[in-house]
Amino acid sequence: MIKEKKGFHLDIWIAVSLVILALYLLFMLYPILRITAQSVLDGDTGAFSLRYFRQFFSDPYYFTTLLNSFKVALCATVTCLVLGVPLAYIYNVYELKGRKILQPLIVLCSMSAPFIGAYSWVLLLGRSGVITKFIKGVFGVKLPGIYGFGGILLVLSTKLFSLVFLYVSGALKNVDNSLLEASANMGRTGFKRFATVVMPLCMPSILAAALMVFMRALADFGTPLFIGEGYRTFALEIYKQYVGETSVNHNFASAISVIAIAITLLVFLAQKWMANRSTFSMSAMHHIERKKPKLIPGILMHIYAYGLVALSLMPQVYLIYLSFRNTSKTGNMFKPGYSFNSYVQVFATMGNAIWNTIRICGGALVIIVVLAILISYLVIRRPNPINNVIDTLSMVPYIIPGSVMGIALVVAFNNEPLALTGTAVIMVICMCIRRIPYTIRSSVAVLGQIPISVEEASISLGASKAKTLFKITVPMMFSGIISGAIMSWVTLITELSSSIILYSSKTITLNLAIYVMVNQGLEGKACAVSSILTLFTVISLILFTKVSKNGEISI
To answer: Could you count the other beta carbons within 10 Å of the beta carbon of residue 425?
Structure first.
């Protein structure tokens, strides 16, 4: 540890800590307190009241939304674990054909908003879907409906299993190959080794992945909105109460938001308790040596890995195909033939959405990277009570649904002296709050592995603390920073749940434009914008592989 004088003295790092703490208190804690206060005020009289909490828990209609959300989140979590954990094991332990492109394809599966996946699956398997009509026309078989709980589960599972894959792959990189060799010498091979050796070693990462999937599934409202057909969920009810088409009740929406925060906090604490029971240190001196599988198992592994990826990417590929179909002048229906009409219409009318995506999401990413570097340095190199509080506050966005954060910011900053509602600034603030944990966690993980002696040597040679950080430490943290930044970026450009509360006509982004177009029936333009968004993601992954040492994203 870098030696400093004892006592609490104001130096540059204390000043940085206080500024970051103030930002968290103003833009995260204050809005949460405001929405909590609004939830216990009677909308008619302004007096203290718990009527909205009683209304939620006493009315079966609203309480059912909570049960439905838990059902969706739990089933999606289990399904993603069943799909993602074996895939990570196969990918990291065995040699697979085309391995270099497999991971980018897996990551690409999750790089569009779930509601876009829901829209795509409706075009494929809906009542008039292309696959539905083909199966019925050729085989005379009517496929079961994709709407409701089954469709929601399909969309979320094919989108979120890649998160499990990334978490478990990161854990497997720390497993020493000697452990697998020892288990093989003791007769533990194949599935037995996977279940009794690999799974316990990766349990902390599996629990972390389960929490991430559960939170994402619980907070998603775009998927049930498009494919649920009356299957009411918690997040959807919050959105409807706040921006309902017929009536709104901001106080009731605030009460539901507080309930959402309390529930997700309980889930988070339960996960932390389980993770702490299985936490242990693990460092691989000899990384896992991938081996060539036997013929039949190898064929099955390739079928599983590429089949799962093909199924998950099918909706995105179909949208790209549809984007080149001829459309009417309005773009609300497809016609025979192919053309660039949809793209011409998009660039003629949606140039602002493309620019907004770049400036708002790009601006948020720059702030995220700078703050993540500073926070990770403070947490690892300058531990003190203030920085411990900052570290804790940085994890709070994990347990707050996006729609709740959006509503909280509107409640807090809708009036003077800091009226930000409807501006790009409030969207950037929300994106930074919600997406910075990805970059912070990856940066902390890398910085924790860098010897402190490197920085001490730099300072002893006369370099300032700031120069040492940006000239020595940050370049050594580069892989972790980039890995987290890529994850933050792809979630920024696909953000919907909070942005739909905060955006205005001047700040609409590509993801929001897709949502609006789908609602308006402009299918050709929606497919074109979706394809442009996919292109953004592909470019991001290509850039990452160019600057990364091994070309692999890990969490």
So the answer is: 15
Tens digit of each residue's pLDDT (9 = 90 or more) over 418-443: 889 889 999 999 999 988 887 887 78
Alpha helices, H only, 40-176: 51-58, 60-93, 99-109, 114-125, 130-139, 149-172
Peptide bond between residue 336 and the one before it cis (omega within 30 degrees of 0):
no
**1, HSE (Cβ side, Cα atoms, 13 Å):** 10
- Compute the distance between CA of residue 514 and CA of residue 238 in angstroms, rounded to an integer: 21
Q: Which residues of 154-185 are buried (b: 16+ CB within 10 A; e: fewer)?
A: bbbbbbbbbbbbbbbbbbbeebbeebbeebee
Helix (H, G, I), strand (E, B) or coil at 326: strand
Is the overall model pTM greater than 0.85, yes or no? Answer: no
**What is the DSSP code string of 230-250?**
S---HHHHHHHHHH-SS---H
CA 149 from centre of chain: 21
| Helix axis angle, 60-93 to 234-243, nearest 10° | 130
Q: pLDDT band at residue 246, thresholds of 50, 70 and 90? A: low
Task: Report pLDDT for 154.
Answer: 93
Computed from CA positions of residues 477, 483, 487, 490, in that sequence, does the dihedral angle turn out positive or negative? positive
**Amino acid letter, 188:** R
Strand partners, 335: 326
Residue 101: pLDDT band with limits 50, 70, 90: confident
Eight-state DSSP code of residue 325: E
Strand partners, 48: 41
H/E element holding 338?
A: strand 334-338
pLDDT score recorded for residue 375: 92
How far, rounded to the nearest angstrom, does the alpha carbon of residue 59 sit from its chain's CA centroid? 32
Per the prediction, the chain carries an average pLDDT of 84
* Distance, first Cα to last Cα, the chain: 26
Dihedral sign for Cα atoms in the order 327, 113, 110, 299: negative
The proportion of the chain whose per-residue pLDDT surpasses 70, expressed as a percent, equals 91
Distance separating alpha carbons of residues 90 and 546, to the nearest angstrom:
25
User: If DSSP codes are grouped into helix, strand and coil, which group holds residue 369?
Assistant: helix
B/e letters for 330-345, b = 16+ CB within 10 Å, e = fewer, are: ebeeeeeeeeebbbeb
In the beta sheet, which residues pair with residue 291?
94
Contact 168, 277 (CB under 8 A): no
Q: What is the dihedral of CA 266, 40, 220, 22, to 10 degrees?
A: -80
Contacts of 157 (CB under 8 A, 6+ apart): 76, 79, 80, 83
Q: Helices H, strands E: what count in the chain?
A: 29, 2
Residue with tokens 């936490």: 279
Report the distance separating Cα 129 and Cα 403, nearest Å. 30
Residue 2: what pLDDT? 47
**CA–CA dist 467, 529 (Å, integer):** 43
Q: Specify the range with the lowest mean pLDDT, choosing from 3-7, 291-295, 406-410.
A: 3-7
pLDDT band at 1; cut points 50, 70, 90: very low
